[in-house]
Amino acid sequence: MLKSACSDHPIGKSWLEAWRNVAETCGLIYRPGWSKDSYFVGAVLAAIGYWIVLSVAGAVSPQRGTGSDSLVVLSIVLWQPLCEEVFFRGVLQGILLEETGRRLLFGPLTLANVVASVAFASAHLPTHPLLWVGGIFVVSLAFGFLRERLGSLYPLALLHMYYNGGYLLLTGWMQT
Question: For the CAAX prenyl protease 2/Lysostaphin resistance protein A-like domain, which residue ranges apply (predicted)?
Fold first, then answer.
């Protein structure tokens, strides 16, 4: 109803067009079929290897949570991935993609992806060991590639939540 009312009015039409442009730039468009994408499925399966490598390499600091830390768990598994995806791969990578014309840097990696991944990994420096941050950078490049391939942040937010949930299990946070 609102969409048809807005699209019939000149101001509403321009507002809707502006919103579509912002949503497209930031990856806030839902695109079906992402769960069957072979690269997405590969990223889901790669998480297990990622956690094993970081654990064996000693890049994980054991932590202990309690049942009263459910808000912390919700933050790490739901809120933080959503906010990080919207900011780093939605806004930052989306704007850089438009500004750089999707210029490739290394193989399928765009300049926008590399810059957003450096920023994303750097944001984790204060709270994670350096080896873990290096792993985060590699995962961020894969997530950035998927963002460009799938054109949507929704699957990436779910994937990020999955990775963070595995992180909590790996560090022992959710053990009772």
Answer: 71-164
